[in-house]
Amino acid sequence: MDRKEVESLVSAQNQWRMRECINLIASENRMSPLAEKMYMSDFMHRYAEGSPYKRYYQGAKYIDPLEEGATELAKKLFRTDQAELRVLSGGTANTAAFSALGGHGDLLMSPGLAGGSHISHESFGVAGILGYRVEHAAFDESEYNIDVDASVKKIRKLKPKVVTLGGSVILFPHPVKEFREACDEAGARLLYDGAHVLGLIAGGQFQDPLREGAELMTASTHKTFPGPQGGIILGSTDEETWKRVQFRVFPGLISNHHLHRIPAMAIALNEMLEFGREYAVQTVRNAQALGQSMHEMGFNVLAENKGFTKSHQIVLDVRKNGGGKDCAETLEKAGIILNKNLLAWDKADDAVNPSGLRIGVQEMTRIGMKESEMKEIAALIKKVLIDRKPPAEIAKEVAEFRKPFHETQYCFRD
Fold first, then answer.
1. 3, 127, 161, 367: which could form a disulfide with 102 (CB 3.0–4.6 Å)?
2. Digit-coded pLDDT (tens) for 216-239
């Protein structure tokens, strides 16, 4: 591959995903132009091992106040005295937190794949690599959420070392308050993985895990929170536990923490302090509007009895439409990008062709779409999956639909 091929592929990607597609991947977002400008700086070439003003390298006189200031912004936004920005992803954040709270031979209870666990919560992911035994909370398919009573009984009976809530498929708030009492009785540590809903939490539109009883909250910084790709750990725990978390981050897991993320994160934190509530409110409204529209058009949108969602996500059972694999691939040909997803009744080996689709509206909300556009998106998906229109034909409609929507909203103007 020569230089021209590289440039051509990058240019094609930018045109396709930023101008011609409806991006509905629930784990993606876009930074503001100002955050992108801060991201593309000399910091991307530099090292600053350690923490502000306590570095193992020289040349950190500008990253020190930036990192310190960004950390203070995170503490302000999430109303906590403990914030760690050096982790490079939500998975890395979970690795640091899980290893600080327990380890080999201990029992960890997660929501499970039925409950929307991230792979890092499971025996085949980070939890297993760290030597945890993994059990799953009980799940109520009719509510499409954690079964509180049955799960509390499991906590009291099994006495896990760590209990984690939150995850990758999360339509409704998880029972943090209810689990806190059971965890206290069992001697368990309670963690919340807010990777998907961090922006909604920042905007006060989902739940507040640290106030509800979670000791630690891990998250990604690029899903409903529209910052640079990376991770964060927020705490409301004792000082000794927090020191263990930070020691796992550095020197345990990370040497250099990709310094160019930090000024971009500082901009994103400021934007969420300024615009976060408005953005989170519209995101949830859009998800509910999309769920209602798709339901009315004949799709099996889960959790109809609960208004479909209180997050940025909706989940569809598309077995009658050809299954998750076929639907996702066909929609991609039409310029509608989302992902196939395991549903509560699927087995782990159904991952190649699961029953469901997971849809997130946070990125399209970020470029100014509202409820009326959600109805149009539902109609475009219907044309592909129910009416069986040629995907290439719909791709033209999608590109036309996207033309007015390309400027990032809910952000500072450079």
1. 161
2. 999 999 999 999 999 999 999 999
What integer best gives the mean pLDDT of the chain? 97
Pairing assessment for the beta strands 162-166 and 145-146 based on DSSP bridges: unpaired
Longest dimension (CA), the chain: 63
For residue 339, give the DSSP letter. Answer: E
Kindly state the DSSP code that residue 355 receives in the 8-state scheme.
S
Cα angle, residue 22 at apex, residues 322 and 367 outer, rounded to 5°: 150
Q: Give how many domains the chain has, as a whole number.
A: 2
DSSP of 96-114? HHHHHH--TT-EEEE-TTT
Tell which of 216, 233, 268 closes a domain.
268
For residues 227 and 350, membership in a common domain is answered with no
Q: Does a structural domain hold residue 16? A: no
Whether 313 contacts 170, CB under 8 Å: yes
CA 98/CA 233 separation, integer angstroms:
11
Answer yes or no: do 171 and 292 share one domain.
Answer: no
Residue 102's CATH number: 3.40.640.10
SS3 state at 162: strand
Cis previous bond, 390, omega within 30: no
Residues 242 and 387 in one domain: no
How far apart CA 265 and CA 413 sit, in angstroms, is 16
Per-residue model confidence (pLDDT) at position 236: 96
Nearest-angstrom CA–CA distance, 133 and 98: 12
pLDDT exceeding 90 applies to what percent of the chain?
A: 97
CA 48, CA 57: separation in Å to the nearest integer? 6
Instruction: Give the residue from 240, 268, 296 where a domain finishes.
Output: 268
Q: Is the pLDDT of residue 299 over 80?
A: yes
Q: Which residue has the tokens 């540590």?
A: 189
- What's the mean pLDDT in 247-267? 97
Residues 164 and 189 grouped into a single domain: yes
* pTM for the model: 0.97
| d(C-alpha 210, C-alpha 204), whole Å | 13
Supply the CATH number for residue 312's domain.
3.90.1150.10
Full domain range(s) for residue 288 = 276-402
In whole angstroms, give the CA distance from residue 235 to residue 164: 14
**E strands, 6-153, where?**
22-23, 50-51, 54-55, 82-84, 107-110, 133-136, 139-140, 145-146
The whole-angstrom separation of Cα 157 and Cα 186 is 8
Residues 95 and 134 in one domain: yes
